[in-house]
Design a protein that fits this description.
Length: 298
C-alpha cells in the first residue's frame, strides 16, 4: 500500500518540467552507477510507493473557462469529465520527477486513459485529489505503468482516472492480442481542422509544456518532425463533441494510437454498439487512427 504524503498546494509545473528535462540526461547516467542501478533502470526498476494527497483544491473559474474554450466545451458551472485531470496532473508530475522515480519523464508515451465520472462536479466544490503510480509491467515495446488519480468531495469519491504510460525499450517483443472493435460508420460525425498552435494553447491551460507539443523546432529537438497534439486534448475534444448526449455517471476509456501531427485535419466518428457508445478520431485523408474509445454508462 502506498504511503500517503500531504501537499499544501498544486505543484508548479514550470519547475517540474525543468527537472524533467534535466532527468532526461541524469537518470540514464545514474542507472549505470553501482549500488543504485535498481532505482534507475540498471537492475529491476521500482516505482515509488507514495500517494500524494492535496486537500481543499479549488477550481479557478477563469482557468476553467479558458480550458473549456481550448477543448471545445461550452461554458458551464459543472466540470467537464476531463477537467479534474488539470488538478491531478501536477501531482503525477511531482511523483515522476522525484529522484525515486526510475524513468525520465521526457520520452514517456501516454498510451491509454480511462476516466470515471461518478457524478457531475460543480465548479464551487472543494476537492481532495489523490495520485499514485503503480503496476509496473512488461509491454511488447518496453515497460508500462499506471498513474491512478481520484477526486473526492466531502469524503465522496466523484471522479477517477487511470493513465497508462509506456517507457520504450527492452520490451518483451510479444505482441498482445488485438482488441476487437465494431465496424465504424463510413461517414464521419464531424471533421475538424486542428490548428498548428493547439499544442501551445493547451499547454498554457494545462501546464503540460512537453517540448514535443509546442513548436516545430522544439519537437524536432526531441526527434519529432512536427509538434503533436496532447493526447488529453484529443480526448477532451471528442467528449466536447458529445456534450448533452452523455449520462451524469459514465466511464470513458480511450487508447491513444498515432499522434496528431500539427496542423491536421481529422475525422471524428461516434456510434452506438451493444448498449455502449464508441468513438474514434482518424486522419481525415489517410484514415490512420489517432484515438479509439468506448463510453459506458455508470
Amino acid at each position: 500500500m502506498a504511503a500517503q504524503k500531504e501537499v499544501d498546494s498544486v505543484p508548479g509545473l514550470g519547475g517540474l518540467y525543468v527537472k524533467a528535462v534535466a532527468g532526461t540526461t541524469v537518470k540514464p547516467v545514474l542507472k549505470r552507477v553501482p549500488g543504485i542501478g535498481g532505482r534507475f533502470g540498471g537492475g529491476k526498476p521500482r516505482l515509488p510507493a507514495t500517494e500524494l494527497v492535496l486537500r481543499g483544491a479549488e477550481v479557478d473559474r477563469q482557468h476553467l473557462a479558458d480550458y473549456d474554450r481550448v477543448c471545445g466545451f461550452s461554458l458551464r458551472d459543472e466540470l467537464p469529465a476531463t477537467y479534474p485531470h488539470m488538478l491531478a496532473f501536477p501531482l503525477s508530475m511531482q511523483i515522476m520527477t522525484d529522484a525515486s522515480f526510475p524513468f525520465p519523464v521526457i520520452g514517456l508515451v501516454h498510451i491509454r486513459n480511462r476516466i470515471e465520472q461518478v457524478r457531475p462536479i460543480r465548479d464551487d466544490e472543494k476537492l481532495t485529489i489523490r495520485v499514485r503510480v503503480e503496476d509496473l509491467e512488461q509491454h511488447p515495446k518496453g515497460r508500462q505503468f499506471h498513474v491512478r488519480a481520484e477526486a473526492s468531495a466531502a469524503s465522496e469519491t466523484v471522479w477517477r482516472s487511470d493513465s497508462t504510460y509506456l517507457r520504450k525499450g527492452g520490451g518483451s517483443g510479444v505482441k498482445s492480442e488485438r482488441e476487437e472493435s465494431s465496424p465504424e460508420p463510413a461517414d464521419p460525425s464531424a471533421v475538424w481542422e486542428v490548428p498548428a498552435d493547439i499544442g501551445r494553447r493547451y499547454a498554457k491551460v494545462s501546464g503540460d509544456s512537453n517540448p514535443i507539443h509546442l513548436r516545430r523546432s522544439t519537437a524536432m529537438a526531441m526527434g519529432m518532425s512536427r509538434p503533436i497534439a496532447h493526447g488529453m486534448w484529443t480526448k477532451a475534444r471528442c467528449l466536447a463533441a458529445l456534450e448533452g448526449e452523455l449520462p451524469e455517471s459514465f466511464a470513458v476509456d480511450v487508447a491513444f494510437k498515432l499522434p496528431v501531427q500539427l496542423p491536421a485535419k481529422v475525422a471524428f466518428r461516434t456510434w452506438e454498439e451493444g448498449g455502449t457508445r464508441e468513438l474514434s478520431l482518424r486522419d481525415h485523408k489517410s484514415g490512420k487512427p489517432h484515438v479509439t474509445g468506448v463510453i459506458e454508462r455508470g
